[in-house]
Amino acid sequence: MSGGAGAAAIPRPGATFGNRVAFGLALLDEGRRNERIVALNADLSGSTKTSTFAKEFPHRFFNAGVAECNMMGMAAGLSTTGRPVVASTFAVFATAQVLNVIRQSIAYPRNNVKIVATHAGITVGGDGATHQICEDIALMRVLPHLRVYVPADAQQTYQVILHVLRTDGPAYVRMGRIDTPVIFDHDYRYVPDRVEVLADGDDVTLACCGLLVEEGRKAVTLLADSGISAQLLNVHTIKPLDVAGIESAARRTGRVVSAEEHVVAGGLGSAIAETLAQRYPTPQRFIGLRDHFGESGEPSDLMVAFHLTAADIATSASALVAERDART
Amino acid sequence: MPRAQVTPIDSVQREELERICTRARRRILRMIHAAGSGHPGGSFSAIDIITVLYQRYLRFRPAEPQWPARDRFVLSKGHGAPALYAALFEAGYYDDEEVLLSLRKMGSPLQGHPVMGKLPGVEMTTGSLGQGFSAAVGMALGVRLDGLESRIFTLLGDGECDEGIVWEAAMAAAHYKLDNLVAVIDHNRFQIDGPNATIMDLGDLAAKFAAFGWATTEIDGHDLDQICEALEWGIALQGRPAMIVAHTKKGHGVSFMDDSNKFHGIAPTDAELAVALKELEGPE
Ligand SMILES: Cc1ncc(C[n+]2csc(CCOP(=O)(O)OP(=O)(O)O)c2C)c(N)n1
């Protein structure tokens, strides 16, 4: 995936950076290369980082105002005139608010609309549950034709955005609000549709997406300290799911812990379980929100309160390993 | 616009209301500052209206928040939550300053956007713009079905009026002749990305609601006499829902915030808070 000026602006591992900032950089770079790209927003162009594109290409940017249904409808229509269309707002308004517009006008006719959503998950923080959607992966994943991406860091976000802009058809890309640790370096090359093995291990597979990939990395270390060798998968693409990659991981370790900043119903863990149940039934534990909405608070406190930390992943994984050991 | 017989406020009442509005502004800034995030601009443009509503017109019992015959207020522009929380504090729903300063903190009844059931007096969960207005229409239908005299008041942002659901609800309120519904638009002429006129031109809001079958009036939303007069007009109105288009200023009341969009969604710094509190000095 050849990058552009923007990719170089993303710091190297060790630093933190906003995935949404990387999105803004990628949109601008690709927008300079492909003058057919248009971008839409719904009164959140600053927060979603599309304002730089808007400034440079005012005639290719349309603000729908606070009117997300109309933004999605216009995006669908614009795409039929032969343009890749990027429609951005906060994830709650990009999905739940507009579900049937996406369903009928974007997904079903396979219109070339990229729904790029920021501010997903509980780490939105202070705004509270009304703004912290933790159901969007499920909502988007069930729509036929729609591809669903949850990049883990800024570098990957940048390349996922280029990928979706260069491939035809509807896609959903999910990002959070907060700056997160940069995982991938400047030489990183995103390989579409393949799970990434970030750590190899034999005892248990940790299958993570988004913010939880970093927690998974820390969990690998925690587990190693207690003698458990964990394999870490970055499942950046929820759909189409890399079923072969998931199956081979399960065959290798025989245990899976999925982890996501999302309700366990219908998300990454569900997608994996649906696959493995048919191909290679595997004991699995789910890290994610149970049947709850979020609440206001500091992102790091909320991660602890809703059991989304490395320690939670490690605890689940250890318990799963112990269970299996007891059985055999 | 025909006016109802209004009872004008006298100078003592006006001064008392002004004091409460100033005190509410101080509380709003202190709670947002303590939270480190929140929406001061749109809280300040709305606080005079919300204060007058709670102090003079809403019928409620803080000790019995679910009193069936109460009037209800729905803050449809949910990001103005600090203004609602300040008004509920002043109205006696709670009296603990620590609770006030717990805005946006984990476990607080003062969520970033109002949540029903967390803080007594919050009548509807809002935050997704447009939905509160629609719920207010439903409440007006419900209390009418119960034969109650209760009135439903709701406050919307002008940017919020971009949402389609606002116009769907507007049509329904007129269709069902909901004269127990009084809505106010906090017309501060800004939304997040900039002025309404550049982001999504709203045109003449009063004329639009009139075309949808509402009785409408326009006021200066920081003039306490005009707010009282308009609310009394809306309450007395028969046969139609009432829309008050209140011309306001975002951040009104503090010099460096007044009529600016800079403080839409950020907390004041320590220094800004100090300057603002000085400007808003007055009796507690
Ligand atoms: C459905 C929905 N879309 C987007 C947002 C994000 N948002 C919060 S405030 C705001 C601007 C609202 O403008 P306005 O109603 O004029 O509020 P005010 O300027 O009075 O603060 C937006 C877009 C939201 N809360 N709800």
Provide structural commentary.
The complex is a heterodimer of chains A (about 325) and B (about 280). Chain A is α/β, with parallel strands linked by helices. Chain A is about 40% helix and about 20% strand. Chain A folds into 2 domains: about 5-180, Rossmann fold (3-Layer(aba) Sandwich), CATH 3.40.50.970; about 195-325, Rossmann fold (3-Layer(aba) Sandwich), CATH 3.40.50.920. Chain A has 13 helices and 14 strands. The longest helix of chain A has 18 residues, at about 310-325. In chain A, about 60% of the residues are buried. Chain B is an alpha/beta fold and about 280 residues long. Chain B has 10 helices and 7 strands. Chain B has helices at about 10-35, 40-55, 80-90, 95-100, 130-145, 165-175, 195-200, 205-210, 225-235, 270-280; strands at about 70-75, 150-155, 180-185, 190, 195, 215-220, 240-245. In chain B, helix 1 crosses helix 2 and helix 1 (about 10-35) packs antiparallel against helix 10 (about 270-280). At the A-B interface, helix 12 of A face loops of B. The structure holds thiamine diphosphate (TPP).
Helix/strand layout:
The complex is a heterodimer of chains A (328) and B (284).
Chain A: H1 5-9, E1 16-18, H2 19-33, E2 38-41, H3 51-56, E3 61-63, H4 68-79, E4 85-90, H5 91-94, H6 99-107, E5 113-118, H7 136-141, E6 147-149, H8 154-166, E7 171-174, E8 179-181, E9 196-199, E10 204-208, H9 212-225, E11 230-234, E12 237-239, H10 243-253, E13 256-263, H11 268-279, E14 284-289, H12 299-305, H13 310-327
Parallel strand pairs in A: 2-3, 2-4, 4-5, 5-7, 6-7, 10-11, 10-13, 13-14
Antiparallel strand pairs in A: 1-8, 6-12, 9-11
Helix pairs in contact in A: 2-8, 4-6, 9-13, 10-11
Chain B: H1 11-35, H2 40-57, E1 72-75, H3 81-90, H4 97-100, H5 131-145, E2 152-157, H6 164-175, E3 181-187, E4 190-191, E5 194-195, H7 196-199, H8 205-211, E6 215-220, H9 224-236, E7 242-247, H10 270-279
Parallel strand pairs in B: 1-2, 2-3, 3-7, 6-7
Antiparallel strand pairs in B: 4-5
Helix pairs in contact in B: 1-2, 1-3, 1-10, 2-3, 2-9, 5-6
Bound molecules: thiamine diphosphate (TPP).
Thiamine diphosphate sits between chains B (41-42, 45, 77, 79, 127-130, 157-160, 186, 188, 190-192, 250, 264) and A (43-44, 66, 93, 97).
